[in-house]
Design goal:
This protein is of the alpha+beta class. 46% of the residues lie in helices and 18% in strands. The protein is built from 6 helices and 5 strands; from the N terminus they run αβββααααβαβ. Strand 1 and strand 2 (42-49) form a beta hairpin. The structure holds FE2/S2 (inorganic) cluster. This is NifU-like N terminal domain-containing protein.
């Protein structure tokens, strides 16, 4: 039997999965940091990608309402084991449906969609910088971070 809106959101809210952080300077980690203009809530979602391009680990930290926390928790479970392409296709409407969010809470699920896309873009720009330094601003920073582990990697494909 399907669980009610109440139990499902409350479950993800009270026992959020995959709360925490991954080391953002790691070259196989992508970090998404997004905010909701409507309310000022903020979500950080990080992915670790294995050598086959599969998301092997996911962590999040959300400073926001219960629906945003539930949405990010749901998203972390949903994307683990997926390719970047598959993960990038997940829509907030799926999350809203799964958690039975009311219309007024749609923007909370949108944060989770924005966050996974932002994390994927961050990962891809790091990889692009590693492969083709000429095309990427910030390659030096990435190199330094790999060698010393000190510098924040800010790579942007040219
Ligand atoms: Fe803003 Fe939920 S009220 S993310």
């Amino acid at each position: 039997a399907a669980r009610s809106y109440h139990s499902r959101v409350i479950d993800h809210y009270e026992s959020p999965r995959n709360v925490g952080s991954l080391p953002k300077n790691d070259i196989d980690v992508g970090t998404g940091l997004v905010g909701a203009p409507a309310c000022g809530d903020v979500m950080k979602l990080q992915i670790r990608v294995d050598e086959n391009g599969i998301i092997s680990d996911v962590k999040f930290k959300t400073f926001g309402c219960g629906s945003a926390i539930a949405s990010s928790s749901y998203m972390t479970e949903r994307v683990k084991g997926l390719s970047l392409e598959e993960a990038g296709k997940i829509k907030n409407t799926e999350i809203a449906k799964e958690l039975s969010l009311p219309p007024v809470k749609l923007h909370c699920s949108m944060l989770a969609e924005d966050a996974i896309r932002s994390a994927i873009r961050d990962y891809q720009s790091k990889r692009a910088a590693m492969k083709d330094p000429k095309k990427a601003k910030g390659f030096i920073d990435v190199t330094q971070s790999v060698i010393t582990g000190e510098t924040v990697a800010t790579a942007h494909p040219g």
